[in-house]
Amino acid sequence: MTTPQIKPASGAQYSRIHGVGGYRPSRVIPNAEVLNWIESTDEWIRSRSGIAERRWATAEETVAEMSVQAAGKAIAQAGIAPDQIGGVIVATVSHLKQTPAIATEIAQRLGCGTAPAFDISAACAGFGYGLGLADGMVRGGSAEYVLVIGVERLSDLTDTSDRSTAFIFGDGAGAAIVGPSPVPGIGKVIWGADGSQADVISQTQAWDTAFAKPDAVNGVGEETKWPALRMEGQTVFRWAVWEMAKVAQEALDAAGITADQLGAFIPHQANMRITDAMIKALKLPASVPVARDIAETGNTSAASIPLAMEAMLERGEAKSGDLALIIGFGAGLVYAAAVVTLP
Ligand SMILES: CC(C)(COP(=O)(O)OP(=O)(O)OC[C@H]1O[C@@H](n2cnc3c(N)ncnc32)[C@H](O)[C@@H]1OP(=O)(O)O)[C@@H](O)C(=O)NCCC(=O)NCCS
Q1: pLDDT band at 218 (very low <50, low <70, confident <90, very high)
Q2: What distance in angstroms lies between residue 343's CA and the mean position of ligand 1's atoms?
Q3: Cis peptide leading into 8, omega within 30 of 0?
Q4: What is the mean pLDDT of residues 184-197?
Q5: Is 238 helix (H, G, I), strand (E, B) or coil?
């Protein structure tokens, strides 16, 4: 008897982003407020990072709440019903409850039925990682539409006394609906990881180490210190400038697109100087609009690319159907870049 053949899943030939949406927390933190925590100046922060202000979430603006708001906008723009979503991927490093994944609550609140829902931890490359997975799911036939969310409450992991990070991070959520397309709308995702540099950006202590310490309040031992994000700024800066421009070029080449054909360049909003250095390395023509959302939003890690994409479309800096080069990079170290058609 011959072994029976399994019927394989089959999906759409191509995929694209059908809708994008963002949520920006209500509380604006201008540089002037940061100067209450660290010795610095507004001029230094602006010139070294490009940041003028950032948004920090209130207690009510939880990871789930911000995600539901952003996703609602993306779903509306895509013009689909929530129960058509066959997968919910939430990229975050700041959902502080280890299990269950926050994606299941978000999927339930949105009305996504029993769609598979899971979290991924890929820091500032999280949105690109999610996009790569969603593209594969749609084309592989495991889902018709996939919701990709990048969401962070980095204020919960910021040490406001650390001069090298206190001014950088912000909170927010961005979401995209990926679904079938008659023409290619997502180029090959160029993604990777370099674990040899895992210490360059990381949480100061694991939760078990932090909470294993007897609490000084009880009169014994050391005071428990809440873990925060720390980074070797210059190492990250050099890596981003030198290595990420090559990855961005690889994404352009894989998609068969040249820089002058782009309608937008939307890099992860890590630092305005990193963006400027990448523009130079890529020889991006001055006519290509560049996302500079960091000025008002700070670095929101996984949320930064969809937030910046939404802002560019809303302001008319780029339009639906334009080609955009996106690239995310951060803790891991990890990266992901692709050329996409804007929704
Ligand atoms: C964090 C970052 C802005 C710091 O800028 P930098 O130019 O590397 O700053 P350095 O740490 O070398 O410090 C330079 C000087 O500024 C001072 N300085 C550091 N932080 C400061 C602050 N917040 N305000 C004022 N001065 C500061 C330092 O003391 C140092 O002074 P010195 O020259 O007298 O010793 C920069 O390294 C960076 O953006 N890195 C990438 C970070 C990033 O993108 N992270 C996210 C990745 S996803």
Answers
A1: low
A2: 36
A3: no
A4: 98
A5: helix
- Position 180 scores a pLDDT of 98
Atom of ligand 1 nearest to the CA of 124: 48
Assign 3-class secondary structure to 245-306: HHHHHHHHHHHCCCHHHCCEEEECCCCHHHHHHHHHHHCCCCCCCECCCHHHHCECHHHHHH
Q: Give the ligand 1 atom nearest the CA of 201.
A: 47
334 lines ligand 1 (CB under 6 A): no
pTM listed for this prediction: 0.95
How is 77-125 classified by DSSP, letter by letter?
A: HHT--GGGEEEEEEE-S-----SS-HHHHHHHHHT-TT--EEEE--GGG
The answer to whether the CB of 163 is under 6 A from ligand 1 is yes
Per the CB < 8 A criterion, the answer to whether 145 and 117 are in contact is: no
Our answer on whether the CB atom of 233 is closer than 6 Å to any ligand 1 atom is yes
State the Cα–Cα distance between residues 277 and 245, nearest whole angstrom: 8
Q: Cβ(38) to ligand 1 under 6 A?
A: yes
In angstroms, the CA 118 to CA 334 distance is: 19
Could you give the CA distance from residue 303 to residue 155 in angstroms, rounded to a whole number? 13
From 31, 43, 164, 202, mutation site for ligand 1 pocket: most ligand atoms within 8 A of C-beta: 164
Confidence band for 10, pLDDT divided at 50, 70 and 90: very high
Nearest one of 141, 164, 144, 157 to 48, comparing CA atoms: 164
CB of 44 closer than 6 A to ligand 1? yes
Q: Which helix (H) or strand (E) holds 32?
A: helix 31-34
Give me the catalytic one of 18, 95, 124, 271. Answer: 124
Residue of 18, 31, 95, 268 marked active site: 268
- Per the CB < 8 A criterion, the answer to whether 275 and 327 are in contact is no
